[in-house]
Amino acid sequence: MPKYTPPDATVTKHNMTGRVTEIERARSQFSNAHNALADAVANLPKPEPPAPPQKGERGSKGDAGRDGRDGKDGVGLPGRNGTNGRDGKDGAPGAAGPDSAAVLAETRAELETVRREFADLKLVVNAIYEQNKQGAGYIEYLRAKTAARIAERNKQQ
What is the pTM of this model? Predict the structure, then answer.
């Protein structure tokens, strides 16, 4: 099979047909070689399948379970039997929770902070929206101006 050589001159529309012919010839030779290889692989002799394995002798019976009996008749270890716990009615009082007035004041302060941040974010979003609106208007202006130039140029021709 001939070896591909890159073009020694720049490829133009005038010398392109020769390059295309070379590429088609190389593709055809590759296709022929590929088909010959596929036929050779298909005609290889098939190996004999291996013989099925022979069964061996059965082993001796295993030891009995943990308590000396078979599994379904065996008895497991007894479970843990503890005393019932108390229901808490006569227990000692727990630790005091947080002061509800302090928690309410802290929550209100956090809520006010979130409201202020929300107002700031609202201003930013509105500013971005206005910039996008102004940009869209400018793009429409440029499109109209370009269309007018094209129409004027077509009139002149």
Answer: 0.30
